[in-house]
Amino acid sequence: MNREEETARKFLQRYNSFNPVILLVENSQASQDAALSFLKSVHKLEPRVQNINFMLMQFNETSVSPVLETTRNSKLRMEKILSDRIPSSPSSYLGRETNRSAVFFGILNAVHLLPPTSGVVVFMKRDVEDEDLSQHAAIEVEKKRVQVFVFCGMNRKGGYLEELAERSRGGFWIQPDRDLSSEYFEEFLENIGAFTSVSMILSRRKLRGENNLMFPIDSDVTGIHISIAPGVTTGLLTTPGGYNIGVLRSDDVVRYSVGSFIKRGSGGHEIHINTTTATTRDVGVWRLQVGNARALYNVTVFAHTTKITDFGTAVNKTGNKKKIVKLGNISSISNITNVSFVTRDGNPILSNAKLESHNNNSLNINVEKVPNESFYAVIDGIDSKGHNFRRLSYVRGSEKDIFFLPPITIDLGLGSELITQPFRQPQLFFEVTNNGNTPTLVRFFCQDDKGILLSMDPWYKWINPQETATVRVTLTTRSGQYQDHITFTAAGTETVSKKVIVDVGISNDDRRDPHIDYHFTSDCTGVLLGSCEDATWTVEVKAKDTGSGLLQVISRPKGIYFPNGFTSGTTEEVTGFFSESCCNPDLELIAFDRQNNRRTRHINAYWATLSPGAIAAIVFGVILLILIIIGLFFLFRKCCIAWRSKGNYDLPVYRGPLSSRRA
Fold first, then answer.
1. pTM of the entire structure?
2. Does residue 241 register a pLDDT over 70?
3. CA 36 to chain centre
4. CATH T-level fold of 188-304
5. Where exactly are the transmembrane stretches of this chain (predicted)?
């Protein structure tokens, strides 16, 4: 007996009526395929089933369809509906689905259409959790003595839905052909809050060809998460015990332990290994062999653990100008054997740093020279159980200090299309930046007013310190002239949102540049260059575009922050702030509108007392002075030439007597 026939046999063993049966199918490809296999198998196994009128209804998270087709009318047409591929359809919400009551609404609608002693067969994957509505559905089911059969793609018990099916003398079964990797990924998203305690243990960038990477895993680690971007063509993960896991094969990853999965996307591969459910705890050195012959790629390995060493890192200068790298929160660590520094690409800077002091709260590292660029401190040691461990701690260099930025910020990418036409698929690019010192797991959600959201990629992302992840949201516009308000949300250590206005079919011929102005709230006019490290400056920036609306305001270097946020596409004035060290006094500000018109301002914190008009006047005066000097030079040269020409007299030439010339 194959898998397709197993589902049909379970139904035939319990349904002893020839009354109509409604197939209530969730609007997903997996559920639709399962319903098609069931319909074919049940007619194949029992010829008398042709006397039963099967009716097709579908449901999603917001609605339930009417009866789409019946076998009494056309069995072939019903099979055709179920065999059609489900295209990506527009929606008003993208992200983790929140409606867990949809199936109960579907059952209530189906029971209302059926005569007594009939049946409802549900094919679904979504989770359900609504006690009140399930009780209401159970009452209606019992009134008409309807049997409810549920074939579910979840890898867990069905809760209220399972109780409803059993009370109706139907049945609740897990579909045998479910994709466990996808199910474990959905579980991961549901319980994503449990994975906020994380530490980086390996970071390598710009790798080429084949690479053999090794990292230790201690007993405190409950999960390993490997992020590979943009993706590799070969990948093999070997445990300390010698067990090989093909990290690009879903069945290999799932087979290792319950809860492990692989998620493929346009940006690369995400592999999650649950170490707590494995047959044996693989503590020791793991080896990852990866390769990509076509492009450079990055590999980052995170450990889910409560043993964190990369919290509150800082670089301090003592009274005698000695540099100290301070790492905080290193409790539960028995012994630190080595501390080294590597670049953000993973290249070595310092192989063995000198430990000055070590206690349960902090670790001081004495170094003569701290890199100006940000880097990672690699901490190797032995935990209280005698196992080797490794953690990477992000240390922000002295090239930039950010004062106002919150842990997570969202900007709209300049390639986003906010003015478009009907029947197109414009894209929005949201740039999510982790401004903290620790890796952060961030989930993404998107919703709008007009229901034109088509897709979002990715749905979640590990973002390293001071790095930016780009999330692509694709729209699908319909006919008409309208304005859609879109809200994009990123949820990590805190939840932040970015609002966007998209015009569809609305012409806007805006050729004027946006307005941008600034005002120093503190500056560097009284600071000597030799003591610039001890001083900072802050500027308040105001921008406005009354034409097509303001798209984005960026700063070079990055770091401008809008405390109240602003809606991209607004015609109102927005206010932001930027702060920096006096060692970096220069700043470029650029404002863009939705028609890609732009205006740029260049400012310097040492020239803060001068207004833009005064600076322009000084520059104009300098240019005018140079022109005057050049003019005087040419005038003086001309006068000299004229004077020389007037002082040149022609004198007679004496040629001697004629006789002497003849001789």
1. 0.69
2. yes
3. 36
4. Jelly Rolls (2.60.120)
5. 605-636
